[in-house]
């Protein structure tokens, strides 16, 4: 991997850089000189990648990371360039590198996935805010940004709201200035009461599907808290018979509730 740090600080590119690309494009795949010529061509065009990366600095991403992304775009441009199409390399490489940088912001830097339109709007608002702050000498209003971008104020507000998904607060941070509890501690858990409520709703119709004796056994066992022996004495059957009826009744209830 060629280090971005080795690229010249100047963004001006000499004719030899273009000549390297032309020579590389003329070599057939598998030519013994192609790998070395490819590395030299990438090295020669690194100032362009750095220049384009710097245009996206100040948007929450480290410049070094942006430079690496731009270099990846440059490598793709070098590998895909075809001189026979009649387009010079710079005209092909710039949109390729810029596309890679925009894709990085769109896909890698958002804490929560939001629609691509809002992601791109957020980037446009950020750039407009920087430009207008410089030209107006003050922080721009929503109306200023909307007029600059040619969109409605509602679109700007929607983009600003979507920008809140760009970063997320760690659940490990304190919940308050003097609190030892974290934000994670304030999150709610599952409430078993909801599940119980749903079961109670389903239980009524399920009980109605049992015959009269089965309903009585269920009622005595789970509402009256009687043992199987006590139920047997009250109904006048054996404890073993109570056990079989109870098992059968519970199986019916389970089937009815699962089907609900």
TrEMBL record:
Residues 42-110, 121-190, 206-255 form the RNA polymerase sigma-70 region domain. NCBIfam families: SigBFG, sigma70-ECF. GO terms for biological process: DNA-templated transcription initiation. It comes from the Bacteria. It holds the Pfam family Sigma70_r3. This is RNA polymerase sigma factor. PANTHER family: RNA POLYMERASE SIGMA-E FACTOR (PTHR30385:SF4), SIGMA FACTOR F FLAGELLAR (PTHR30385). One of its GO terms (molecular function) is sigma factor activity. Keywords: DNA-binding, Sigma factor, Transcription, Transcription regulation. The lineage of its organism: Bacteria, Bacillati, Actinomycetota, Actinomycetes, Micromonosporales. The keyword DNA-binding applies. The keyword DNA-binding applies.
């Amino acid at each position: 991997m060629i280090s971005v740090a080795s690229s010249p600080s100047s963004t001006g590119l000499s004719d030899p850089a273009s000549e390297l690309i032309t020579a590389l494009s003329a070599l057939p795949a598998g030519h013994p000189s192609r790998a070395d010529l490819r590395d030299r061509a990438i090295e020669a065009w690194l100032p362009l990648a750095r220049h384009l990366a710097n245009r996206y600095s100040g948007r929450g991403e480290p410049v070094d990371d942006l430079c690496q992304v731009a270099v990846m775009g440059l490598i793709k441009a070098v590998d895909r360039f075809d001189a026979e199409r009649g387009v010079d390399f710079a005209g092909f490489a710039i949109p390729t590198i810029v596309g890679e940088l925009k894709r990085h912001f769109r896909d890698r830097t958002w804490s929560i996935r939001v629609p691509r339109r809002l992601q791109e709007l957020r980037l446009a608002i950020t750039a407009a805010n920087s430009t207008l702050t410089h030209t107006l000498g003050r922080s721009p209003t929503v109306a200023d940004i909307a007029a600059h971008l040619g969109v409605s104020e509602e679109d700007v507000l929607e983009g600003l709201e979507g920008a809140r998904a760009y970063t997320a607060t760690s659940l490990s941070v304190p919940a308050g200035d003097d609190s030892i509890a974290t934000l994670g501690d304030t999150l709610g858990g599952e409430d078993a009461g909801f599940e119980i409520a749903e079961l109670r709703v389903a239980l009524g119709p399920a009980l109605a599907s049992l015959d009269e004796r089965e309903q009585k056994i269920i009622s005595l066992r789970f509402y009256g808290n009687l043992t199987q022996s006590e139920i047997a004495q009250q109904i006048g059957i054996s404890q073993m018979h109570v056990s079989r009826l109870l098992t059968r009744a519970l199986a019916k209830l389970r089937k009815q509730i699962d089907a609900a």
